Automatic annotation (TrEMBL):
Residue span(s) of domain IclR-ED: 74-243
Highest taxon of source: Bacteria
HTH iclR-type domain: residues covered: 14-73
InterPro entries: GAF-like_dom_sf, HTH_MetabolicPath_Reg, Tscrpt_reg_IclR_C, Tscrpt_reg_IclR_N, WH-like_DNA-bd_sf, WH_DNA-bd_sf
Xref: Gene3D superfamilies: 3.30.450.40, Winged helix-like DNA-binding domain superfamily/Winged helix DNA-binding domain
Protein name: IclR family transcriptional regulator NdgR
UniProt keyword Zinc-finger, yes or no: no
PANTHER family: HELIX-TURN-HELIX TRANSCRIPTIONAL REGULATOR, ICLR FAMILY (PTHR30136), TRANSCRIPTIONAL REGULATORY PROTEIN (PTHR30136:SF39)
Record key words, sorted: DNA-binding, Transcription, Transcription regulation
Organism placement in taxonomy: Bacteria, Bacillati, Actinomycetota, Actinomycetes, Kitasatosporales
Species name: Streptomyces thioluteus
Gene: ndgR
C-alpha cells in the first residue's frame, strides 16, 4: 500500500479516503497553500492537488481570497444535519410535556428556504385543536413560528422576507426584545399561537417551538397564557443541542 498518506491515525484500509481525511485534518488549523498541504500531510504534490480539487468539487474544500485551500461549506451543512438529528431525538418528550402543560398542540418548525416545515409535533388528545401534521410545509409569511425564524435573520434576508409578510419589522423587533412571538389569526382564521427560538451551539436560531389552538381558548393575548411554557421548552431543546454540540 502507498505510504504517502503520512502517519496520522490508523489506516482504514481505503487509501484514498485516508488521504482525503489527511487533507481535511490539515485544513482544520486554517488556510493552506498546496505547498502547505504537502508539508502537513506528507502526500506527494500531485496527490495532494488532485485530492484537494476533488474535495473542492464536493464542496468539502473551498478557496479563500488568496486562493488558499480552506474547509468548505458542505462540512457546516453536515454538522447542521447532525445537530438536526439531535434536535429531533430530544423533541418528542419536550413537545409532549409542553402539550400537557398548556393543553394545546405543540410543534417544532425548521426553516427550509422560503418555507418552514413541521419536523415534530404533539397533538392535543381531544377536543378542538390545531392539527399540523409532521412534514407539513407552511409559508414564512405568517404565524408566530415564521416570526421567530425570521426575527434574528441577517438584515438583507430579513428585508426580503418581510415583503408580502403578514407581520412587520416593528413586530419582529418586539419578538427580539421579548424573546417570543404570538399570532392571532395570522396564519389561519380562528387560530392563535405562541413560539420561541431554539438555538444551536453558535447561538444561531435553528428552529421554533410553538403551541397553537383556537382563539377561543388561547384568547387574543396567547402570550400571556403560554409564553413562559414555550420559552421553557425552547430552553430545554437549546440546552440539548449545546450539551451535544
Amino acid at each position: 500500500m502507498d505510504n504517502s498518506g503520512g502517519a496520522v491515525g490508523a489506516s482504514s484500509g481505503v487509501g484514498v479516503l485516508d488521504k482525503a481525511a489527511l487533507v481535511l485534518s490539515a485544513l482544520e488549523s486554517g488556510p493552506a497553500t498546496l505547498a502547505g498541504l504537502v508539508t502537513a500531510t506528507g502526500l506527494a504534490r500531485p496527490t495532494a492537488h488532485r485530492l484537494a480539487v476533488a474535495l473542492e468539487h464536493h464542496r468539502m474544500v473551498a478557496r479563500d481570497m488568496q486562493g488558499r485551500f480552506i474547509l468548505g461549506p458542505r462540512l457546516s451543512e453536515l454538522a447542521a444535519a447532525a445537530g438536526e438529528d439531535r434536535l429531533l431525538a430530544s423533541a418528542g418528550p419536550v413537545l409532549t410535556h409542553l402539550r400537557d402543560v398548556t393543553g394545546e398542540s405543540a410543534q417544532l418548525y425548521r426553516r427550509q428556504g422560503d418555507m418552514r416545515i413541521c419536523v415534530a409535533a404533539a397533538e392535543r388528545l381531544s377536543g378542538l385543536r390545531d392539527t399540523v401534521p409532521v412534514g407539513s410545509t407552511l409559508p414564512m409569511k405568517a404565524g408566530s413560528a415564521a416570526q421567530v425564524l425570521m426575527a434574528w435573520e441577517e438584515p438583507e434576508r430579513l428585508h426580503r422576507g418581510l415583503q408580502g409578510a403578514r407581520f412587520t419589522a416593528t413586530a419582529l423587533s418586539g419578538v427580539r426584545r421579548r424573546g417570543w412571538a404570538q399570532s392571532i389569526g395570522e396564519r389561519e382564521p380562528g387560530v392563535a399561537s405562541v413560539s420561541a427560538p431554539v438555538r444551536g451551539p453558535s447561538n444561531r436560531v435553528v428552529a421554533a417551538v410553538s403551541v397553537s389552538g383556537p382563539i377561543e381558548r388561547l384568547t387574543r393575548h396567547p402570550g400571556r397564557m403560554h409564553a413562559q411554557a414555550v420559552l421553557d421548552a425552547a430552553v430545554r431543546l437549546t440546552e440539548t443541542l449545546r450539551r451535544n454540540g
